[in-house]
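User: quick one - fold this with iron/sulfur cluster bound?
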Amino acid sequence: MPDFLRTLFLHAPSWEGFDGGAGARYQARREVRSFWYPTWLAQPAALVPGSRLVDAPPAGLTLADVAPLARDHDLAVLHTSAPSFAHDARVAEALKAVNPRLRVGFVGAHVAVAREAALAAAPAVDFVTGAEFDFTVQEVAAGRPLAEVAGLSFRVNGHAERTAERAVLEDMDRLPWVVDVYKRDLEVERYFIGYLLHPYVSLYTGRGCRSRCTFCLWPQTVGGQRYRTRSVEHVVEEIAHARRLFPQVREYFFDDDTFTDDRPRAEAIARGLGRLGVTWSCNAKADVPPETLRVLRDNGLRLLLVGYESGSQQILNNVRKGIRLDRARAFTRDARALGIKIHGTFIMGLPGETRETIEETIRFALDVDPDTLQVSLAAPYPGTALFEEARARGWLEAEPLVDGSGVQSSVLGYPHLGRTEIFDSVEAFYRRFYFRPRKIFAIGGEMARDPAVLRRRLGEGVDFLRFMARRRAARRP
Ligand code: SF4
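Assistant: Sure. Structure tokens for the protein plus iron/sulfur cluster:
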């Protein structure tokens, strides 16, 4: 085994509470404090012996805390995103100021789609990687000359050079388990997602999604539009190992883009998890048949995170969601009948949005009535078809994607529907969904049954109201 460089994997500090690390699909500060695990960084970290993973926002670390780490490392690998790129570039400069010999690389979807532009915009960065960067980073950490490492662009004599493309990983069992890195470097209690039990652990069992939704970042950039998967045994053994590492964890979340896309495999994993007796949840498209839902439920599935996106069939067609509303309704009924909870996600401002479709979507959500929901603004990330469409059609009315405190901005506007109206529709949506007797009783009942939930929900309620007030204030000119 080669001697590895002393390698720091870093999700850099940016805005307080910014959930934009190497595991967040929508990089933004959210309505209630939440943090996804930095799984995209944990994967290469698990391939580099002796490395360290630092996830600054959940740990509450500032630049003053992380900059001195540069002294003890030879290589720093930062996961960056469109909203946080400028911040991350400044952190790279600060690290280099502490240790000028430090080699700095950026990974993530944002640099994967524009490698040379990223190098030009971040002078302290020595290399940026493309997709499938796990083994790219491992080779860099092993000390291979950058020119010989496939899948990156690097700075040489003032200009950028690009190496050969890295082959797509097919044997996904080559990806290491991440839970040992979580155990070594993270504190699971610091990770919250409002609709998941706490503490939770999330990880990936595969990469990519076969759907082609135009707004969706990962499949179009770092994941690919095929679902490549780890074997059932590899996944179940990692969860069995995780249970020994984290006896306090109450729920496991499979954050694959669409875990339910390969149904026989999902059922086989479920049966393995059922034997372990764990509670788990996953992402799903609203098209899982009842017989599969039943197998998953019988083997510990608690909740599905479902991207409904819109209640307008035309908008779903516009963004190539590949789902029919009647199917989504039937799926939701089936899941409810089986006692599976649903966290539904919606996006306001997708192409084709009008005042009428906003109303249709809110009515759809009230009608299918997921247990909880999240409403986001359409975010045209570079590298997505939505970004190209928005640019070509002149819909990009503003930038950047987040405001000065890391909260999502409304950047898409249409001749018939301005971005401010789209921005306002998010709050209207939340109010109409949550401020109903049915929802208030449901949440109140949950709080009455469990004092830990009571404390958590009260805190989240305060967070939510503050967040909305801040949002309104930010909207004012
Ligand atoms: S189905 Fe979900 S994960 Fe797959 S491309 Fe569409 S939005 Fe993305």
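One thing worth noting: Residues 451-475 form the longest helix (25 residues).
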